[in-house]
Design goal:
The structure is a single chain. Helix 6 links the parallel strand 7 and strand 8. The chain is an alpha/beta fold. The protein has one domain: 5'-nuclease (Rossmann fold, 3-Layer(aba) Sandwich), CATH 3.40.50. It is 35% helix and 23% strand.
Length: 204
């Protein structure tokens, strides 16, 4: 892979999920990894998400497990639960600090970073990484109302990648899902994330 740019993906899980839903398609994380492996020497693909510790099973857990076995580095932390003034149970948590630390530590070994988030809080992080000589692309969308990407983050990055333009390459193929036999695998997992719980983890 000599001569190929060294790249890494930093995926804000909750933000990417919300963005793809706003655009009306399901992410296929296997295809996503394959697409960016074709763009250079993919050093690392991070996926950041919070988990609710008090719940023995959450809908995100099968995705986290699958990503762990299939080429992603998953970073999680417990979300904080609280009761608001109306007595409703709320969950609070984000992975901004964890994402920033991983990006700053890995930046000296990279040529190009793809940040999958539209969160404007990442603008200073993008600027800091650029000062290290790393190109930063932000993957989000302006095709929603309001746009899912903050304007200052879009201005700061070296390249803005419209997620809608990647739909054909990283989106779940509805025809493939429909072709699978009823009752096979985990339909909820497949419908949400474009993965199959029955997929075998890689050897080694």
């Amino acid at each position: 892979m000599a001569g190929e740019p060294r790249i890494a993906l930093f995926i804000d899980g909750a933000n990417l999920y919300a963005t793809s839903k706003q655009l009306g398609f399901d992410m296929d994380y296997r295809r996503l990894l394959k697409e960016f492996q074709s763009r250079g020497n993919l050093i690392r693909a991070f996926y950041f998400t919070t988990l609710v510790e008090s719940e023995e099973y959450t809908s995100i857990r099968p995705l986290v497990d699958w990503l762990d076995y299939n080429g992603y580095r998953v970073v999680t932390k417990a979300a904080k639960e609280f009761t608001d003034a109306t007595g409703r149970r709320r969950v609070k948590g984000n992975m901004d600090i964890e994402l920033a630390i991983e990006m700053l530590e890995l930046a000296p070994h990279l040529d190009h970073i793809y940040l999958f988030s539209g969160d404007g809080d990442f603008r200073p992080l993008v600027e800091a990484v650029q000062r290290k000589g790393v190109k930063v692309s932000v993957v989000s969308t302006i095709n929603t109302n309001p746009p899912m990407v903050a304007d200052d983050l879009r201005r700061q990055c070296d390249e803005f990648v419209e997620l809608a333009s990647l739909m054909q390459k990283v989106g779940r193929d509805p025809a493939e899902r429909a072709a699978r036999a009823p009752g096979a695998g985990n339909p909820g997992l497949e419908r949400r994330y474009g993965i199959r719980q029955g997929d075998e983890p890689p050897e080694g």
